[in-house]
């Protein structure tokens, strides 16, 4: 990758924009960093940036954003008052009964994850690359199961780097592979 003089600021701007979209998509699932990344690469109206650099920047943004959910699940970040549960007597409805069952199930799942930390690490790693089970859910579960912060950051950063580097390279690879099949 050769950067001509004057393009450094454009490269930095695109990298900062990618970082911002990545953090935003980590916090709000309605924002798609994947769509942004593929669109940015496929459009081609940006200075050339290596796929692994884009993958790294987006991975860092995603992990930074997900750390908020991780720490909230651990109880280290207090939720705003409007998100905290209200202490008022509730009547028994099908919804409260179902929610209580979900709470029991989630508690059992947490206990299983704490008993098998290697399985939790593997699940988080696979989720960070593939997205199944949903990365948001495994992030919260990792926080609830008290996974080490360093392990969480290391596993998810590596997985997200693989995912987004491959995604950033995909339009270029497809443009070279597809003409041979036509």
Structure, explained:
The chain has seven helices and no strands. It is an all-alpha fold. Helix content is 74%, strand content 0%. The model has no long low-confidence stretch (mean pLDDT 83). The chain is elongated. The longest helix has 33 residues, at 149-181.
Describe the protein's topology.
Blueprint: H1 8-27, H2 33-43, H3 51-74, H4 94-115, H5 117-130, H6 135-144, H7 149-181
Helix pairs in contact: 1-3, 2-7, 3-6, 3-7, 5-6, 5-7
Helix content: over 70%
Tell the overall outline: elongated
Sheet with the most strands? none
Strand content: under 5%
With helices defined by DSSP (H or I, 4 residues minimum), what is the helix count? 7
Q: For the residues shown, what is the average pLDDT?
A: 83
Distance between the termini: 30 Å
Rg for CA atoms: 20 Å
SSE sequence, one letter per element: HHHHHHH
Summarize the structure.
The protein is mainly α and 182 residues long. It has seven helices and no strands. The protein starts with 7 loop residues before the first helix and ends with a helix.
Tags for this model:
single chain, 182 residues, mainly alpha, 0% strand, elongated
